[in-house]
Design a protein that fits this description.
By secondary structure, the protein is of the alpha+beta class. It is about 45% helix and about 10% strand. The longest helix has 17 residues, at about 405-420.
């Protein structure tokens, strides 16, 4: 069965083809930025980010420290919508900003048109490469050795949990106790679901918000996910993937999932009304949780905490890069801004603002990250920076293929909704494989 001409992948494929064509015609203009920005030579830099990246406080500071620079920032609500925005503008060859935030999950698509991004080695990237965790730099380096992005955050994962709900259920509620309940240093997904079954039995309420984030976490911590390191598809016949799918499906069938809408949670109400008690949390998700609670009229008294544990061991979800498209009229100034926004002091500020854990090594050790801040105070004074640092140990970068995000959203997205709605594991898995074939994903 062929995909509909109006299907998302058909549109994405058409856009991808256009991207490739446009990319071949893009080249940096060496004459750009002939004069550095100054009060007498004003330069406006446009920046596009997404989600909660914690960069906003840095823009005004940079403008004050760099006379002549004006920053016009656009923030798109989710990474998925930002990807659509980037692909549309990339294909059109117009409308891209001077600094474009790129999510880890897009890397397969971005690297296919790497020559449409400025090689930051031209502006000193090699001299500062040691500032970030090495696997982050490798992710941003194309096969020809071009460095196309400066790393912002990484997404080591712990468990957000509501201590009040655990206590009301008669279960351990202190973060160290919860970590042990979930298996401690040897935590497994079986341990996680066992605790969930106990919680559901005691409360008759769901354990986690929805199965999508759990599935994404399970996939991301495998050595190889939807693609093998050689770039080949890795879904059909993947015993590890199927085993985790069956575990997740079984948990959903027992009522552990609240079947919430991803990124909505009833406008945040589910975080304050007891709809669920835990969720997988990469560092950047902490800012999302805090924002959702406050958006629903709650505060730190809602009871959310953060435990130093993760089922199945170290895992990374997400993390971004700041790139400079070759269409920028001011590549030197844009590269300078991107480097500033990913510096140690800037990443420490972003962590305080949004909980985005730094990829910058110096920032990881800073008082702003390891000490008390607004984020840690919200999470019951949890040492969130210290916990995320612990959770980052052992993280390895997983290869992301060209259609990784499409597989996550369009292949497994509907199948995950199906198991949350009551479908059995086999039927939902076969639905995903059928969609994979229909979309002709390779």
């Amino acid at each position: 069965m062929k995909p509909s001409r109006k299907s998302p992948l058909a549109l994405a494929t058409a856009v991808a083809g256009s991207i490739a064509l446009v990319a071949t015609g893009c080249a940096a203009d060496a004459s750009k930025d002939a004069q550095p920005a100054s009060a007498d030579n004003p330069v406006t830099l446009t920046v596009t980010t997404f989600g909660t990246q914690g960069l906003d406080p840095l823009y005004e500071k940079y403008q004050k420290e760099n006379p002549g620079i004006t920053i016009e920032a656009t923030n798109i609500d989710t990474g998925g919508n930002a990807l659509t925005d980037w692909k549309t503008k990339q294909a059109a060859g117009a409308g891209l900003p001077d600094v474009q935030a790129v999510e880890e999950g897009w890397l397969g698509q971005v690297m296919s048109v790497a020559d449409s991004f400025t090689d930051l080695r031209e502006f000193g990237a090699n001299e500062v490469a040691g500032d970030w965790v090495d696997w982050k730099v490798k992710q941003a380096t194309d096969p020809e050795g071009r460095v196309i992005g400066y790393g912002t955050d990484i997404g080591p994962m712990g468990i957000c949990f509501n201590a009040k709900l655990f206590k009301d259920a008669g279960m351990p509620s202190e973060r160290e106790e919860v970590a042990e309940l979930l298996g401690g240093d040897d935590a497994t997904w079986e341990d996680f679901f066992k605790a969930g079954n106990e919680y559901v039995k005691k409360t008759d309420k769901a354990f986690y918000d929805q199965s999508g984030f759990v599935w994404n976490s399970m996939v991301n911590q495998l050595d190889e996910g939807y693609y093998k390191a050689d770039g080949s598809l890795n879904i059909e016949g993947n015993a590890e993937l199927r085993e985790r799918w069956d575990l997740l499906s079984d948990a959903a069938s027992k009522g552990l999932s609240a079947n919430q809408t991803q990124w909505d949670w009833g406008k945040g109400q589910a975080f304050v009304d007891g709809s669920f008690a835990v969720m997988p949390c990469p560092g950047w998700m902490l800012g999302t949780v805090k924002g959702q609670v406050e958006g629903a009229g709650g505060d730190s008294s809602a009871g959310w905490d953060f435990a130093d544990v993760f089922p199945g061991g170290a895992a990374n979800w997400g993390g971004s890069f700041l790139t400079v498209p070759t269409t920028s009229e001011h590549p030197a100034e844009a590269a300078k801004l991107a480097q500033y926004l990913t510096s140690a002091s800037s990443q420490a500020t972003s962590f305080e603002e949004a909980g985005t854990f730094p990829s910058n090594l110096e920032a990881q050790k800073s008082d702003s990250v390891t000490g008390t801040n607004e984020m840690s105070e919200f999470f019951n004074n949890a040492p969130v920076g210290e916990i995320l640092g612990n959770r980052a140990n052992g993280v390895q970068a997983q290869y992301k293929g060209p259609q990784d995000s499409v597989i996550q959203e369009q292949v497994f997205g509907p199948a995950i909704k199906a198991i949350d709605a009551g479908s059995d594991s086999e039927t939902a898995w076969n639905k995903a494989l059928s969609t994979l074939q229909e979309l002709e994903i390779k």
